[in-house]
Design brief:
Epimerase_deHydtase, about 270 residues, Lipid_A_modif_metabolic_enz, 9 helices, NAD(P)-bd_dom_sf, seven-stranded parallel β-sheet, Rossmann fold, globular
């Protein structure tokens, strides 16, 4: 099995690739500008916005793990080009050169409506307004309509392995005026690997699957865990299910997180 991974040097890809290699997966990393891939990974030079370059990248692969995405930038045109147009270009290349390949797309809990009456479920109708989740949902729909063998994983808040993501939370809390009682579904990098290895076996084919640990955790607790502070509040929480996902489907498919809570990650020095 040869697996093409996009976003190989990103927050998720840089931590997933070594775990895939350790699991015995033959990995090919899509890289721009002639950069070398991580140890044990072959690199192929290509760009998601250059459709011709993708043809060679996908030649002969058994699966694609599409992680590449643009997130925190005010440039909405770049977000849409990278996340939606880039995904469409990759889909077209796979259909042309490796139509039997399994295509696994990484997505986000941010697609769910903030004012939902329950934890976000894969079957929910979603209509995100911000560029990042809207572009990811558009990419999901393009893949679902492609005729390829697909699966989609919607991640909770990704953290761990010294990625610095959780440590950014105190700044994000201040910028977005988040309520301290808001709970977020979380997922450690180790369990992104758990989920991806499952998907490579076909266990998630044709499904959208929420991927998160067992304990959605409050913003207040998370900020304290990384040594930050925020003002407490007993004001009513207007959107109690925002950023909180229902993970029952993943559990029914056999997904069990290795890092079950962020407190376990802290205790075992996995932050």
């Amino acid at each position: 099995m040869t697996v093409l991974v996009t976003g190989a040097t990103g927050l998720v890809g840089a931590r997933l690739l070594p775990r895939l290699v350790e699991a015995g997966v033959n990995c090919r990393a899509l890289m721009r500008g002639g950069k070398e891939g991580p140890a044990g990974v072959s690199a192929v030079e290509a760009d998601l916005l250059d459709p011709a370059s993708l043809m060679r990248a996908v030649e002969g692969v058994s699966a694609i793990i599409h992680l590449a995405a643009v997130f925190r930038t005010p440039d909405t045109d770049l977000i849409w080009k990278s996340n939606f147009e880039g995904t469409r270009n990759l889909i077209a290349a796979v259909k042309a050169r490796s139509p039997e390949a399994r295509f696994i797309l990484a997505s986000t809990s941010n697609v769910y409506d903030a004012d939902s009456s329950h934890p976000g479920r894969e079957s929910d109708t979603a209509n995100p307004q911000q560029a990042y989740p809207a572009s990811k949902l558009a990419a999901e729909n393009a893949l679902r309509e492609s005729g390829l063998n697909w699966s989609i994983q919607r991640f909770g808040f990704v953290y761990g392995d010294k990625d610095g993501h959780l440590e950014e939370l105190p700044r994000l809390v201040a910028n977005f005026k988040m309520h301290p009682a808001q709970r977020m579904s979380m997922v450690h990098h180790r369990d992104i690997a758990t989920a991806m290895n499952m998907a490579l076996t076909g266990a998630m084919d044709g499904r959208i699957v929420n991927i998160a640990d067992e304990a959605p955790t409050s913003i207040y607790e998370l900020v304290e865990l990384v040594g930050g502070t925020m003002d407490p509040s007993s004001a009513p929480l207007e959107n109690p299910w925002r950023l909180h996902m229902d993970v029952s489907l993943a559990r029914s498919l056999g997904f069990q997180p290795v890092v079950r809570t962020v407190y376990q990650a802290k205790r075992e020095n996995l932050m």
